[in-house]
Known about the structure:
mainly alpha; 0% strand; globular
Amino acid sequence: MTELPFELETDLERTIAGDPAWIEGIQYGRPRPGHPEGQVMFHIADVLKNIDRHHGDSPLRERLRLIALVHDSFKYQVDPSRPKVGENHHGHLARRFAERFVDDPAVLTVIELHDEAYNSWRQGSHGDWPKAEQRAGKLLERLGDVRQLYLGFHRCDNETGDKSREPYEWFEQLCGSPRPEEGPSS
């Protein structure tokens, strides 16, 4: 078993962490912009620290931890010769994996779409803010009442490595809602 840079807290977390595909996935990665920590397991550790900092007593905490454990763990299965969208996006691959263990539709949705707010912002930062806002609007529509869980995770994921706060703040402003720790649980 790979030594993890974080503690597992529940039987479900230990079951997920015992899966060979997950173990392979968390060892994947090298330092790069946005992820100077390199391997996925170190990014997960950073996200989990943020969850404790922002959601330590929150009813969202356990669900956010599940999302953190799986969200980037299947980047290694993305086919680099194909566009990184749909079934070849790491969020989709992570959701398919998580469906074996988790039956919470909100958790599965956030795992699958966890990068979509950033991808929307990135489209705007490359000069097309109207399309970026349209894309983010479609994401918000799809999220529905899962919005607070998504924002909670997006914040914890965004406050790692050398990432800018700008994508999170832009998306939070579009949401026009209270900060995740202030809103109702989803």
